[in-house]
Write a structure and sequence with these properties.
The protein is mainly alpha-helical. It has one domain. α11 packs across α12.
Length: about 260
Amino acid sequence: MPFQPNELNDLKKAKTLLENPGLAAKITHFLGTPIEKGFALLPGNWRGKIGELTRTALSKAIHAAVLTMRDSPGEEASTIWHKLAVATTGGIGGFFGLPALAIELPISTTIMLRSIADIARSEGETINSIESKMACIEVFALGGPTITDDASESGYFAVRAALAQSVTRAAEYIAEKGLAEEGAPALVRLIVQIAERFSIQVSEKAAAQAVPAIGAAGGVVVNTLFIDHFQDMARGHFIVRRLERKYGKKIVQETYRSV
């Protein structure tokens, strides 16, 4: 079945969103300050600390964000409200500085996951299904290209392939036992794997907010860019999944690479 012209345009849009520059480039462009300056201001143990915060934030978000959403595929996403909420937490975080990240990040991540689920629903996903829930969580690994990426590992379909086994095992576990256990081994493995990529964007966000001149106002801007980035990833991801449901994964992947 050939792609309809409007669907081919949708796929082009998805590819543009998913393969665009990463968060660091967007922050640098809007703030006019290279975030490398911020990395120099982070404490010596920041990598381990941010990795731990990221895993905790993802775990809390998974158990809080998607569970309360109504299942109404095709309903228009209300991205602006989620942006305002995350901007508010960014302003508070920027005012209190890096120590506030431990409090701010789980809240921001939960709001972002709800926004991701909202976008998924608008693209026809059945949010109450385990597969759709897992697809929402995957978005945090789709952070776009970063300076640490190997070209063979950074493409959209390459990231999905790398996560596929962990996603399947987590979905099987949840289907059997539900989301009640935060320490479920299959879910923990998935969270760790996604956190490895999501923590790169969190580090870039933290570095930007570590620059003294940014403060509360800059925290609002950084968090707005943060959620805007992942809303873009979500829109691209769920456009692809919508087309996969109609044409099959292989056809969509081949067409994606050719557009």
